[in-house]
Design brief:
374 residues, 2,3-Dihydroxybiphenyl 1,2-Dioxygenase, domain 1, 2 domains, nine-stranded mixed beta sheet
């Protein structure tokens, strides 16, 4: 059977989808949440909207909630040396622990996932305060990452019970909504996690890229994009493929010491303005050679943006049948070469910049070489 036939058969045999409305939050476990909060507040322009810590009665952790339009981050640090949070940071460094899915019924979503074989992290529980009720439950996924089902329709507070509201405005950079969240998994484990999302959540394979699609002279990887039917959730999964040298995926796995979230893609309506602002604030991005832009219109045709502006900022462009997209990737935002961000603007295109893979991965390999990890 062809690859397309296999994927179509899998979709026809898929279980009923757990209805997920979209990404609710992304929670990082970090060594110092107060300092990380300053970085995302000043560097990326997030508002600080809520806090939980010693001052609110939390003796085990401190958490800051940041928000920009529909993007919501939680930065959490452990307050005791034996906390699970501290152990996570010790093993992995700062990174994403928890991806929150907003649902209408957290209990039902959790029970459905468990009945289909998911491992429980926390059973459904409802917390209440003067702003209403908030229900959540969590299950395990790749590495030490978890998914939390969040039911907040009956809660009107800043974030959740136990948090106090903060009104610390950031200087908005134009970030709008989480476009997709990419996970790296160990070699020969991608199909396991593809099946997990198919059988547990009812998601389907939205796109598939093999080693021929994503390779350079040195390294290669394989990727499948899991998605729900509405398109509000897209979760690409990568695994390293055999190659002459170490791929960016293997570098991540070596330094994170497990599978985990590799990057978070956030959309904007004006990528030139957004990236320009981020540059001014010290956010570092990957760069590509001038030659990429010399032949850009030959590859993608006419575009609205000024090519010189794209070159100065290092923004990539790719065209598909429905339109084109613009994208750029930060350097790792941690000292370990693990997590990074993507800024993306879609102008009709629904893919992930396949035409940019070679240029992007060569750029990453140049960075790997400077770290001695290629």
């Amino acid at each position: 059977m062809t690859r397309e036939t296999v994927e179509k058969t899998a979709q026809l045999n898929a279980v009923e989808e757990i209805p997920v409305e979209g990404f609710d939050f992304i929670e990082f476990y970090v060594g110092n949440a107060k300092q990380a909060c300053y970085y995302y507040h000043k560097g990326f322009g997030f508002d600080v909207v809520a806090y939980k810590g010693l001052e609110t009665g939390s003796r085990e952790q401190a958490s800051y909630v940041l928000r920009q339009k529909s993007v919501q981050l939680i930065l959490t640090t452990g307050l005791t040396p034996t906390s699970e949070i501290g152990q996570h940071v010790l093993q992995h460094g700062d990174g994403v622990k928890n991806i929150g899915f907003r649902v209408k019924d957290a209990k039902k979503a959790y029970e459905t996932a468990i009945s289909r074989g998911a491992k429980s992290i926390s059973e459904p529980h409802t917390n209440e305060d003067e702003d209403g009720s908030f229900t959540s439950a969590a299950v395990a996924t790749y590495g030490d990452t978890i998914h939390t089902f969040v039911e907040r329709a009956n809660y009107k507070g800043a974030f959740a019970p136990g948090y106090k509201a903060i009104d610390k405005k950031g200087d908005n950079t134009g970030l709008l909504i989480v476009d997709h969240i990419v996970g790296n998994v160990e070699r020969d484990r991608m199909e396991h996690w593809v099946e997990f999302y198919q059988k547990t959540f009812g998601f389907y394979v939205y796109q598939y890229f093999d080693a021929k699609d994503i390779s350079t002279q040195y390294s290669a990887l394989v990727s499948k994009v899991m998605a729900n039917k509405s398109g509000s959730i897209k979760l690409p999964l990568n695994e390293p493929a055999p190659a002459a040298r170490k791929s960016q995926i293997q570098e991540y796995l070596d330094w994170y010491t497990a599978g985990g979230v590799q990057h978070i893609a956030i959309s904007t309506a004006d990528i030139i303005k957004t990236v320009g602002e981020l540059h001014k604030r010290g956010i570092e991005f990957l760069t590509v050679p001038r030659a990429y832009y010399d032949t850009l219109t030959e590859r993608v045709g006419k575009i609205d943006e000024d090519i010189e502006e794209l070159y100065k900022l290092g923004i990539l462009v790719d065209r598909e049948s429905e339109g084109y997209l613009l994208q750029i990737f930060t350097k790792p935002v941690e000292d370990r070469p693990t997590l990074f961000f993507e800024v993306i603007q879609r102008k009709g295109a629904k893919g992930f910049g396949k035409g940019n893979f070679k240029a992007l991965f060569e750029s990453i390999e140049r960075e790997q070489a400077t770290r001695g990890n290629l």
